[in-house]
Specification:
homodimer; 5 helices; about 100 residues; mainly alpha
């Protein structure tokens, strides 16, 4: 089994900062959309052993690295928040809403 | 929950082609190392709904796209195969062996 360490790191960041991102919707679908979009814009850091996640996390103690992740997260939060897909699911399916994934 | 569709696609490719990659070792640790290394060199395609994996898989019906994935897989298989980490775990830990992850 392999794990993208960035998946855990970004999930933790989203949990920590979601109340500061001015989200129109904080349902699980929208949070997952933000996470998926952010991870698509972030270089993956796959590890084959879960213990090694600490090495990757250590890199983001650096304030500059952490800030660049937060900027990506905020940008993606805005994209999802401007057009929440969870609401489009309830209405008619519009393929444009799927364009960001 | 979010999933990197490339993780599934690359895992399937590795399972299909592992006997043609001239691997020195085909233990699970080495296969995971190949997978992790290949995924680190591949643009992630995170999806928030597992049903959407089909859309991503459809892109790789294209022979050229599939070939580029196979080339990456073969390159990473060679790197891992030249220096299998599973054997180094049994010997003394050598940090150079960790350099590719």
């Amino acid at each position: 089994m392999v794990i993208n360490a960035m998946e855990r790191i970004m999930k933790d960041l989203l949990d920590e900062y979601k109340n500061h991102l001015q989200l129109n919707c904080t349902c699980n679908d929208c949070l997952d959309d933000i996470l998926a979009l952010t991870l698509n814009k972030t270089k993956p850091r796959y590890i084959a052993k879960v213990e090694k996640i600490t090495y990757v996390k250590a890199e983001f103690i650096d304030k500059q690295e952490l800030t660049s992740l937060l900027v990506k997260l905020a940008e993606c939060a805005k994209i999802v928040s401007d057009k929440p897909q969870c609401q489009s699911d309830k209405k008619e399916v519009d393929s444009n809403h799927m364009s960001y994934l």
